[in-house]
Amino acid sequence: MPSPTGFFRQQHELVCDGVPLAAIAAAEGTPVYVYSAAVLRDRYRAIDEAFRGYPHAIHYALKANSTLAVARLLRELGSAADANSIWEIEIARRAGFQPQDIVFTGVGKSPAELECAVALGVKAINVESAGELARIEAIASRLGTVARVAVRVNPDIDAKSHPHISTGLNINKFGLPLDRATELFDTIRKRPVLKLVAVHLHVGSQITSLEPLRHSAAAASELSTALLSEGFPLEYVDVGGGLGIAYDDRQPPAIEEYIAAVVAEVRGTNLPIVVEPGRAVAGPAGALLARVTDIKPRGADTEFAIIDAGMTELIRPALYNAYHRIEPVTARAAHERLYEIVGPVCESSDVVGRDRRLPQLEVGDLVAIRDTGAYGAVMASNYNRRPLPPEVLVDNGSWRVIRRRQTVDDQLSLES
Ligand SMILES: Cc1ncc(COP(=O)(O)O)c(C=O)c1O
Questions:
Q1: In order of start, what are the domains of the chain with their CATH numbers?
Q2: How many CA atoms, within 13 angstroms, populate the side-chain half-sphere of residue 283?
């Protein structure tokens, strides 16, 4: 039987791909992010194989986790990249992605970002507005090149995710409604320096039901078919990312089910499919380790457990009220107690886990905050002058630091 991968218990100890998390915390200190290379590979391959031979490209969304070693690992598996800034494009390039493997998304791309993307000749700039298209056109004319563009259409589909991570409603800032997008298609047709290579839809993140994803793929497909019949040289259909993961007991659609639904909707176009998964690849591959630094009473039968990781290391709970499982790294037979698990940051919203029932904790205990491989380390900040935490990659039974802990000197090196 193959040995299990990811985070699981060996007797009482939580391990990552067989490596005890307690050993990593002892060597590197806490807080520390730990990633499983095996889970990253498994999740990537599951998406890849779910296409069952249908032509496709997986553009891993770097915004979820762009640590160089993670980006490289995915590139080595055959991944392409979805970048959201020129800095993510630069990371992608240093990780070995070629310009033709990069799609460039994002609201409010600056002139410098557009200049860089047009000059590089990325696979597509996903255009968000008429103004942005005009700016791309001006740059392409000046550089004497043809800019490859996709238009991001906002289909007014409710992803039924958290409002802060839903992007496909007309009230959201992303993309253009269909009537406005049509004006852009007309402009592109008339401009020899612009080439429309795809339509792009992305309706949100942490989507836990199939319907919005299917509906969005159907809308992308229908629009692509219409554009093909009008003679646009479309090369693929970009259905974005967004598939959710199981942060709690609720199960999102399985990867196979999701991809099968997308393929079923897009197949009629005969175009390859581009998907941009971030969370579905990296989320389950990470855990944030923290130590209990203090315990104090909160009410009659609940206590605060203060840990050395908070909203500076993992902002999702404070920002979106997101739920992450929290568990002791060493299981101990103790009575359960009710805890408010909070970080050390000087904000009342610095709560990592509300009302959690855990075996009695003691100062010095190590806890693991699960499913933090995506939108974890990338969203860390220096608030309270807290250093960015280190990141560790466990691969094939051994582990290494892929990003060291920031120091105060690192911070001050930017100041005068
Ligand atoms: C355009 C685009 N593509 C892909 C993603 C990745 O989404 P997820 O991590 O939910 O798969 C995002 C994130 O919201 C996005 O904005």
A1: 7-36+283-412 (2.40.37.10), 105-277 (3.20.20.10)
A2: 19
